[in-house]
Design brief:
The structure holds two protein chains of two kinds. By secondary structure, chain A is of the alpha/beta class. Chain A has two domains: 210 residues, P-loop containing nucleotide triphosphate hydrolases (Rossmann fold), CATH 3.40.50; 71 residues, Alpha-Beta Plaits (2-Layer Sandwich). Chain A is built from eleven helices and 14 strands. In chain A, the strands form three sheets. Chain A has a six-stranded mixed sheet, sandwiched between helices. Chain A has a four-stranded antiparallel sheet with strand order 2-1-4-5, with helices on one face. By secondary structure, chain B is of the alpha/beta class. Chain B has a five-stranded mixed sheet with strand order 2-1-3-4-5, with helices on both faces. Classes of the chains: A alpha/beta, B alpha/beta.
């Protein structure tokens, strides 16, 4: 079976800026594929090229086996799109908006079914501006399903939502996925990418820095734990050099100057000697956090920066 | 496409505030112009065709000249021409004084049927009534006071025969009403579509439509169709208020000419909608779209002769005004509604409008932006 999306050597240039800089990846049919990256990484531009909203400067993109340059209309009929912060008509009810959108497609799902699926059946006669943030987001997802698409593209589906509403949307996305729909989504939330996506593309400044499953991306780091220590006094180079072979100082003296981020292969072996070193030299341990390595660490490793909301 | 048109109409009708003001503004002008009784206050022009040339006829004329309601003049080209001047609306009143009016015997003889004849057009019934009564009393008094003649005992109805000629009289208000229809359609079409599209663009609604397989032309047709329907409703309302409240008249064969007006309105509104699409492409915000739309519509309103003739414009402006799309629209509407001509006689104006529709349509699709 062909890929749901195949992106090959894609470049999008705006003036002298490469918004998308020679990226290639594929999305397999039936998977939830995430594109992770900070604002301005080129995620939305990449999606908009796949959706047919923008044309590529170079490279090729095929969606459901069709070329985006030549078969744009056929592609649009078979995919569903949720844009980042797209509004809908003010003076139509939810039911009426879905019914109208349905007339644009060769086949469409009845509005009550769609609203039921996103748990908005009771709001059918309401207008969009009467809904809460989470309800609005669920509605825009329902609107992307109006043509019963094979591929759904969601651009930051949970941005700006509270944690509860966010989890609610994750449940909805999984539910759509269970109906054999391929899903491509962008996010800048690590937790979302790790929990929801089967495979991930990490983008930074228009470039693709890695594509893999979340588990593989994490195991690539070769570390199991991340340790953050806050000290009373800074460590000297000699003290750092004296750490075990299994300890790597990823970031030194950041935030309030005496905070260090260490990565450990195995905390049962390495953590004790690290603490010994710190106390032996009188650095004064004020605070310590030990966590399993997450995508956050992967991102830091790959791009040299932290993802911030 | 039909669904989109219906949805558009639904949205317009639910946006009550916008719908109200769109309809209210031109109606307000209709009321303002309707309240000024521009035609009623002016004096009527009366020409005397004096076949008698006697002191009596001179006296009648002199007495009539003293009446403010009338501007008295001479009509020297014979009865036939004078009557046709009345019939065409060029002359308000014609007074024919027959030979022998100063002869008491003839006046007294019922067989001679000697009488002063007053001919007027049907256009201004209120003034006609006043003038008719005034002329009768003036003539009766002059004849009763003929020097050296005993009192004849004539009554007014015997000495003056009046005759009303059906005249397609077009008042200033009738003409202005067409101007107001054109103005309403123009401003509403340009500004409403420009603001709407600009709003849709800013809130990414256009972008959302673009990710569906809906062909762009269908989207345009849906918008234009809904707005043309709105324009027709607006025109019908303005005409209804003008005719039923302020007594404007629409000439010619009514169903046919009324349909003709609506056909011109539909064609004109397409031109202005296209201009609205172009404006929306140039403006970044709905407020800018509104301002730009007004900047186009308001000067055009004056240059196209909505309220008064453009002949008084200096330099090449009267010719330039001919090139504006509102000018042929108003000309055609006035030909049909005021001159009572059938729609097809306005083909030169319709051709110019169709040319505008085509040119602005092409321009709109070229410059239109979704993002």
């Amino acid at each position: 079976m062909e890929d749901a999306v195949l992106v090959d050597s894609l470049v999008k240039r705006f003036g002298s800026v490469n918004a998308v800089d020679d990226i290639s990846f594929n999305v397999q049919r039936g998977e939830i594929f995430g594109i992770l990256g900070p604002n301005g990484a080129g995620k939305t531009t990449t999606l908009e090229i796949i959706e047919g909203l923008q044309s590529p400067t170079q490279g090729s993109v095929s969606v459901l086996g069709m070329d985006i340059r030549r078969q744009g209309a056929q592609i649009k009929a078979r995919i569903g799109v949720q844009l980042q912060s797209a509004a809908y008509f003010d003076y139509l009810s939810l039911h009426e908006i879905l019914a109208l959108l349905g007339t644009f497609y060769p086949k469409s799902v009845r509005p009550p079914e769609l609203l039921d699926q996103v748990d908005l059946a009771g709001q059918a006669k309401m207008r969009l501006n009467q809904l809460s943030g989470g309800q609005k987001q669920r509605f825009t997802i329902a609107a992307s399903l109006v043509n019963s698409p094979e591929l759904v593209i969601l651009d930051e589906p949970t941005t700006g939502l509270d944690p509860l509403a966010r989890r609610n949307i994750w449940g909805l996305i999984r539910q759509i996925h269970q109906q054999d729909v391929t899903i491509v989504l962008t996010t800048h939330y690590m937790e979302e990418a790790q929990n929801l996506c089967q495979r991930l593309a990490i983008m930074d400044q228009g470039r693709l820095v890695a594509v893999d499953t979340p588990a593989n991306l994490i195991s690539r780091l070769g570390a199991a734990y991340s340790v953050k220590v806050v000290l009373a006094h800074p460590l000297t180079d000699a003290q750092i050099a004296a750490f075990d072979a299994g300890v790597e100082v990823v970031q030194g003296q950041f935030q309030d100057q005496n905070t260090y981020l260490l990565r450990l292969n195995d905390h049962s072996k390495s953590l004790g000697p690290v603490l010994d070193q710190i106390s032996k030299n009188g650095a004064g341990l004020e605070h310590m956090e030990v966590t399993p390595v997450t995508l956050e660490d992967v991102f830091l490793e790959l791009t040299g920066k932290e993802l911030v909301d | 496409m039909v669904a989109l048109t219906l949805a558009n109409l639904k949205m317009m009708s639910r946006n009550r505030q916008a719908a109200f003001w769109a309809l209210f503004f031109p109606l307000l002008l209709v009321v303002v112009f309707g309240l000024f009784d521009i035609d009623g206050v002016g004096p009527g022009g009366l020409s005397v065709l004096d076949l008698s040339g006697s002191p009596v006829s001179h006296q009648i004329r002199e007495d009539l000249e003293a009446i403010n309601l009338l501007t008295v003049g001479e009509f020297g080209d014979g009865e036939a021409q004078a009557r046709s001047a009345v019939a065409s609306g060029d002359l308000d009143y014609l007074l024919m004084i027959p030979l022998g009016i100063d002869d008491p015997d003839k006046l007294r003889d019922p067989d001679s049927r000697l009488a002063v004849k007053l001919v007027y057009g049907s256009g201004n019934p209120g003034r006609n009534q006043l003038v008719d009564g005034t002329v009768r009393s003036v003539v009766a008094r002059v004849l009763a006071e003929m020097p050296g003649v005993p009192y004849l005992g004539l009554v007014e109805s015997q000495v003056v025969e009046s005759e009303e000629v059906a005249v397609a009289q077009v008042s200033y208000f009738d003409g202005v009403l067409m101007g107001l229809v054109g103005l309403g359609i123009m401003t509403n079409s340009i500004i409403s579509i420009a603001v709407r599209i600009s709003t849709y663009r800013n809130s990414s609604i256009l972008k959302r439509l673009l990710v569906t397989p809906l062909p762009i032309w269908k989207y345009f047709v849906g918008e234009v169709a809904a707005h043309v329907v709105l324009a027709l409703i607006q025109a019908a309302l303005i005409l209804a208020v003008g005719v039923f409240v302020f007594g404007a008249r629409i000439q010619g064969n009514l169903p046919g000419n009324l349909l003709g007006i609506f056909a011109i309105v539909a064609l004109g509104s397409m031109v202005f909608l296209n201009i609205g699409f172009i404006v929306s492409a140039w403006s970044r915000t709905p407020a800018a779209a509104s301002g730009m739309g007004n900047a186009i519509a308001l000067p055009m309103m004056f240059f196209a002769g909505t309220f008064f003739s453009t002949a008084a414009l200096p330099w090449v402006l009267p010719y330039a005004a001919q090139a504006l799309p509102l000018t042929p629209m108003l000309l055609a509407m006035r030909e049909v509604a005021n001159a009572g001509q059938p729609l097809w006689t306005t083909w030169p104006q319709l051709a110019i409008l169709a040319g505008w529709a085509l040119a602005t349509g092409v321009a709109a699709t070229r410059v239109f932006k979704f993002n």
